[in-house]
Amino acid sequence: MVVAPSPTATPGEPTMSPYPAPSPAPTPAPSSAPTLAPTFKSTIQSEMKVTGMTIETAQANEDVFVDTIATTANVEKSAVTVVITEEAARRLLAGRMLAEGDISVAYTIQVTAVQKAAVATTMAAATTAEMDAAIQVSATSHNVATAFAAIATTELAVVVTVEETASPTSAYLSSDSASKPVALFGALFAALAFLL
């Protein structure tokens, strides 16, 4: 004889299966992004005076002077900027008449903290003869040696170091800051799933 199993629930009352609460979704740990430190830079600034060419020729061949300064300072050309003006016109206002064709080449060299001392020392020690030789090499490499054949450096100004601090190029959230929104979202998700 087969004996029917006893019901586990009271007769007449349906058995309600419990609705299992979903497991909370795990909160992934954010990857720790590095925080970039500000880039500290300085500039080396000075001026050289040259003669033997017109201001138009000098300004049309600015790259020759950029190369000259970069080679002498042993830095990349992209770190050098120059401003070429007619020195006679400026000095005349101060009551000093200079020979026609005197040209001022003011230059700025961007350097890192590691480069700063060496570049400043090198440029301060440069002579007019060394600058003339560097100009000729640069002019030859740019195929304008004829235009620079009569150029001569007449004066080298005092070298000045200017300290500058650049702003950070990028900003990253710290790992603590980044984890807070993620953890909050995970908690809300788990509570919503439980209610459903």
Write a short abstract of this structure.
This protein is an alpha+beta fold and 196 residues long. It is elongated.
Describe this structure in words.
With 196 residues, this protein is an alpha+beta fold. The chain has a domain at 40-165: Alpha-Beta Plaits (2-Layer Sandwich). The chain is built from 6 helices and 5 strands. Strands 1, 2, 3, 4 and 5 form a 5-stranded antiparallel beta sheet that branches. The longest helix is centred in the C-terminal third of the chain and has 21 residues, at 175-195. It is elongated and about 95 Å long.
- Tally the beta strands: 5
CATH topology of the domain at 40-165: Alpha-Beta Plaits
CA-based shape: elongated
Rg, rounded, reads: 37 Å
- Mean residue pLDDT: 77
The CATH top-level class label of the domain at 40-165: Alpha Beta
CATH architecture of the domain at 40-165: 2-Layer Sandwich
Q: Separation of termini?
A: 46 Å
By DSSP (H or I, 4+ residues per run), the number of helices equals 6
Reconstruct the topology from this structure.
Elements (H helix, E strand, L loop, with lengths): L39 E12 L3 H6 L1 H12 L6 E7 H7 L9 E10 H13 L2 H14 L10 E5 L3 E6 L9 H21 L1
Antiparallel strand pairs: 1-3, 1-4, 1-5, 2-3
Helix pairs in contact: 2-5
Entry keywords:
about 200 residues; five-stranded antiparallel β-sheet; alpha+beta; Alpha-Beta Plaits
